[in-house]
């Protein structure tokens, strides 16, 4: 059974204070690891897909990296508008169903 | 494309009533998922359709829940009878044939009183 654990549950940063969110996973043959952003009252918004260890993807102040056991979402010089819940999900090769972690709630103070 | 469209956005109903949630996936997508999100349990898969056929419904809580996908552009999730513990946000997501990532709708917030 695919498992995803995200840490920390909540993170408060000052504007400009860089940090990282962690996603640890257990999966039988990774088909893809996904990062989503979810704003209050809205559906998860797709950010990145990572397929293999060593892969990295960037979008504005966000950078996602992947190893064989975990993924990190690095946030560089965050702004208040980066405040949201960030969700990680994995999909194994034998399954077509993404399994989600509980998310990290990020608040960036001005 | 307008993205995944769900209706209604909010639903308040009394215990014992029937509730029907609706979803229009992105055109051309052949996979559809229904998820439920609560503070306690996060995002949980309820059911997965591929090419309009239910493939995995192991997440459907009990017989009170049923889902249909009569065609490629429409799906429903029905709860009958509803109970207060069904209160949650229900999301529909769709995925293209050659893709891995799923795209979510805005969700339906269900409150059963």
Describe this structure in words.
- The complex is a heterodimer of chains A (110) and B (113).
- In chain A, the strands form 2 sheets. In chain A, strands 2, 4, 5, 9, 10 and 11 form a 6-stranded mixed β-sheet that branches. A 5-stranded antiparallel β-sheet of chain A has the order 1-3-8-7-6, with no helix packed on it.
- Chain A starts with a strand and ends with a strand.
- Helices cover 0% and strands 59% of the residues of chain A.
- Chain A is globular and about 45 Å long.
- Chain A has strands at residues 3-7, 10-14, 19-26, 30-38, 45-50, 56-59, 62-66, 70-75, 84-92, 99-100, 104-109.
- Chain A has 110 residues and is mainly β.
- Chain B is mostly beta strands.
- Helix content of chain B is 0%, strand content 58%.
- Chain B has no helices and 11 strands.
- Chain B has strands at residues 5-7, 10-13, 19-24, 29-38, 42-50, 53-56, 65-71, 74-79, 88-96, 103-104, 108-112.
- In chain B, the strands form 2 sheets. In chain B, strands 2, 4, 5, 6, 9, 10 and 11 form a 7-stranded mixed β-sheet that branches. Chain B has a 4-stranded antiparallel β-sheet with strand order 1-3-8-7, with no helix packed on it.
- In chain B, strand 4 (29-38) and strand 5 (42-50) form a beta hairpin.
- The termini of chain B are far apart.
- The mean pLDDT of chain B is 95.
- Chains A and B meet through strand 4, strand 5 and strand 10 of A and strand 4, strand 5 and strand 10 of B.
């Amino acid at each position: 059974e695919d498992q995803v654990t995200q840490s920390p549950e909540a993170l408060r940063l000052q504007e400009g204070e860089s940090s990282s969110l962690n996603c640890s996973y257990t999966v039988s043959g990774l088909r893809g690891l996904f990062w989503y952003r979810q704003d209050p009252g809205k559906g998860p918004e797709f950010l990145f897909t990572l397929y293999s260890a060593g892969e990295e993807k960037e979008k504005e102040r966000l950078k996602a990296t992947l190893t064989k056991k975990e993924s990190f979402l690095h946030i560089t010089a965050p702004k208040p508008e980066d405040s949201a819940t960030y969700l990680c999900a994995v999909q194994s090769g034998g399954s077509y169903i993404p399994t989600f972690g509980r998310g990290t709630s990020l608040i960036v103070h001005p | 494309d307008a993205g995944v469209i769900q209706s209604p956005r909010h639903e308040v109903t009394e215990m014992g009533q029937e509730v029907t949630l609706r979803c229009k996936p992105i055109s051309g997508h052949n996979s559809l998922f229904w998820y439920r999100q609560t503070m306690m349990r996060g995002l949980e898969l309820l059911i997965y359709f591929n090419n309009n056929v239910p493939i995995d419904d192991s997440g459907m809580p009990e017989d009170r829940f049923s889902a249909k996908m009569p065609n490629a552009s429409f799906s429903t999730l029905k709860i009958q009878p509803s109970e207060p513990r069904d209160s949650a946000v229900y999301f529909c997501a769709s995925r293209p044939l050659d893709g891995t990532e799923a795209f979510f709708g805005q969700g339906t917030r269900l409150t059963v009183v």
